Amino acid sequence: MLARIILAAALIASVVLGPVRPVLAQEQPDIIILFDQSGSVGKHDPKLASKAWLLTFLKTFDNPYKIEIVGFDEALYRHLAIDRDTATDINAVNRAIDGIETVGKATDLEMPFRYLLNYAKPSTKLAVIISDGEPEIWDAKLGYLSKEVQADPRYDDLNRQYQQMKDAGVSKRKRFEKLGALYHARNIDLIEGQMPGIAKLIGDRLIIWDLSGTSYYLKTWAKAAGAQYLPMRVAAQENPVEQLQKAMTALQQHSSAIVKEALPDDHEHRAAIALTTIPEIAAKVQPREQPAPKPLSPPIETRMAEPVAPQLVARADTQTSQSPIWGIVLVLLGGVIGALIVYRRRATAKAEPAVPVDLASQYIDAKVKGALDDAEKLRRKLLIAESEAVKVERRFSLRVAVPTGAMEIQWISADGEKRETAAINLSMHGVKFETHGAEVKAVTKIICPNMDVVLGVKKFQEIRRDGSRSVALLIEFENNLDDWMRWVEIITRIDQIATKP
């Protein structure tokens, strides 16, 4: 009992925000959990997800592990260290994690990868990064630029421009309009530059949990780092407890293969039990049935087994006993399949038959996906190039005139009234539309009736008012990558399409 009291006190005392300090050799963790603790994450809750996974891991796996919990926003914070060799007070873990503040004003996604490069070792068994995958080192709404970035020599040229504009009395909005895209691009380049090192150090033992389920960045970086990408959405508006239960099961299975410890038969039940220890969601957890105990096998004659080469531990639900007859069947089946492959290749060379529809569909889907990924990269480069090439006034100038009736903007005024008015002109960055002097609270949709296109706007910023008109910077669409492709098409074709009578 005394040991538990001391451990609980130590766990709570360990919640101290501060800079990262070196890890001693004897303190080297086996498991590292890094979660996004910035206040900009919004409807996703990485702290809750991190706590749920930590408690599930402790309930699921029996081998001794040293586990470390690290938070990040614009900096890194080592919050909690647990030694699985000792009795772990779950209530103390809950209290310790609940005490972590998630009020960061910026999200520098370089931080978790930098931590792994500095502190992960060949002995590290597993690392998990939990985030919604939205890098934001400069919050335009708050006008806040990461202090870590301002002190980082890798941003020296941009920081000099920022300071000069600040000393000259240039507003926060104007500073962001000129330098925001350049800071963002530098940040992304620095992150991508770390991927080869991550791949070499810990790539196949890293899981990147994308809480949004749609992050282009996390998906791209996971591929470059050789890590496992898990797009498991956990949003407050979408029954997060049910989503957490599904995510815990997926993480149990992936982690089992990585740490080479077989899952217990009742692992889903254990995950549910772990979630019931979290006070804020305990009442909503759906219990899982415990598997019935396996019947005892009849006694058989035992004999000394021949030595075999060690194998990776497979998932518990996929292990089956093998007999020699199955080996013979597999060999014969492999021979038949090989003969069929050779026969088909020869037949194809002679007759050149048409590609099956399903294979053609898969091929086309793969090509389209590749083209969309390339288009997103190109769009980012175009934004960067334009930001460097033109001044602020020209960067946001709207160049393509919209014919009458070709585009309507659906928006909500400050008094909550839904309105729909005509677009006047547009560019790669935004759109100017008629507001009749009303203040714009939100832009919801962009409609092009002649092109049968409706784009849902997820994130925007009103950057200028021009008399009775408004200029909106388009930041994110609902179907972000696909809609940006449509937006480029609209820009190139809208002044060529005749309006309907």
What is the topology?
Layout: H1 2-13, E1 31-36, H2 46-60, E2 66-72, E3 76-83, H3 90-98, H4 110-119, E4 126-131, E5 138-139, E6 144-145, H5 147-150, H6 156-167, H7 172-201, E7 206-210, H8 216-225, E8 228-230, H9 240-259, H10 267-276, H11 324-351, H12 357-389, H13 392-395, E9 400-401, E10 408-413, E11 418-426, E12 430-434, E13 440-448, E14 453-466, E15 469-477, H14 480-493
Parallel strand pairs: 1-2, 1-4, 4-7, 7-8
Antiparallel strand pairs: 2-3, 5-6, 9-11, 10-11, 10-13, 11-12, 12-15, 13-14, 14-15
Helix pairs in contact: 1-3, 2-9, 2-10, 4-7, 6-7, 7-8, 7-12, 9-10, 12-14
General description of the model:
Helix 4 (110-119) packs parallel to helix 7. The strands form three sheets. A six-stranded mixed beta sheet has the order 3-2-1-4-7-8, with helices on both faces. It has a six-stranded antiparallel β-barrel with strand order 10-11-12-15-14-13. It has a two-stranded antiparallel ribbon with strand order 5-6. It is an alpha+beta fold. The protein has 14 helices and 15 strands. It folds into two domains: 31-283, Rossmann fold, CATH 3.40.50.410; 393-496, predicted glycosyltransferase like domains (Thrombin, subunit H). The chain has helices spanning 2-13, 46-60, 90-98, 110-119, 147-150, 156-167, 172-201, 216-225, 240-259, 267-276, 324-351, 357-389, 392-395, 480-493; strands at 31-36, 66-72, 76-83, 126-131, 138-139, 144-145, 206-210, 228-230, 400-401, 408-413, 418-426, 430-434, 440-448, 453-466, 469-477. Helix content is 42%, strand content 19%.
